[in-house]
Amino acid sequence: MATGTVLWFDTARGFGYITPDDDGDAEIRVNAAAVERAGLPPLEDGQVIAYELERDPFSGQMVAGKLRA
After folding, report:
1. Is residue 53 over pLDDT 90?
2. Ramachandran angles phi, psi of 33, nearest 5°
3. What is d(CA 49, CA 69) in angstroms, rounded to the nearest whole number?
4. SS3 for 36?
5. Neighbours of 58 (CB within 10 A)
6. For 41, which DSSP code?
7. What pLDDT is recorded for position 22?
8. Which helix (H) or strand (E) holds 49?
9. C-alpha torsion sign, points 55, 59, 65, 69
10. Three-state SS string across 4-27, please?
11. CB–CB of 48/5 below 8 Å?
């Protein structure tokens, strides 16, 4: 399971981005639905989070899923 830091997360917009610990140049999108499925409260900027990469069925892009705080 990869870990990263929440760059920003906007509950009104329903998504945000995580900066992975292993690659500071990439940003991984995280959707509010993944946060809800994990039973987590809204993510906070600077929060460290564990995640697995999943393919978004709508966009086909890789996104953060199976989140753990």
Report:
1. yes
2. -60, -35
3. 5
4. helix
5. 8
6. P
7. 84
8. strand 48-55
9. positive
10. EEEEEEECCCCEEEEEECCCCCCC
11. yes
Cα-Cα end-to-end distance for the chain: 12
Mean pLDDT for the stretch of residues 29-55? 96
Return d(Cα 28, Cα 61) in angstroms, integer.
10
Cα(25)–Cα(59) distance, rounded to whole angstroms? 21
d(CA 15, CA 31): 4
Cβ atoms of 18 and 5 within 8 Å: the answer is yes
Give the whole-angstrom CA distance, residue 50 versus residue 60.
21
Using 50, 70 and 90 to split pLDDT, how confident is the model at 57? Answer: confident
Say whether 51 sits in a helix, a strand or coil: strand
